[in-house]
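Hi team,

Below is the intake form for 5-methylcytosine-specific restriction protein A from Kitasatospora gansuensis. Please confirm the fields before the structure is written into the shared record.

FORM ID: S-0412
PROTEIN: 5-methylcytosine-specific restriction protein A
ORGANISM: Kitasatospora gansuensis
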Amino acid sequence: MTWSTSNRRSRLPKDWPAIRARILTRDRHRCYRCGRPATEVDHKQRGDDHSDANLGAICTPCHRTKSSREGGQATRWRRPPRRRRPDERHPGLR
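The structure came back. Fields below:
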């Protein structure tokens, strides 16, 4: 499932298929997080650093978990802080 608001694919280098194949081969198609068979390539650190050191083979479940967590963190800083009412004494305890 792709994110409808993501522009990640348009920011990938033109030779992404070759880079992806190289990383999967380098990592022997094994997920860098859990060791299961991997079919995807992940940017370990956020951003557009497409260097081999920042890329790793990853399985679909780990990629979904990592992407969901990162997406939640990204929206958390954009959300306005919660307003809280000041604590009040219970009316029966006055």
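SUMMARY LINE: The chain has a mean pLDDT of 85.

Thanks, M.
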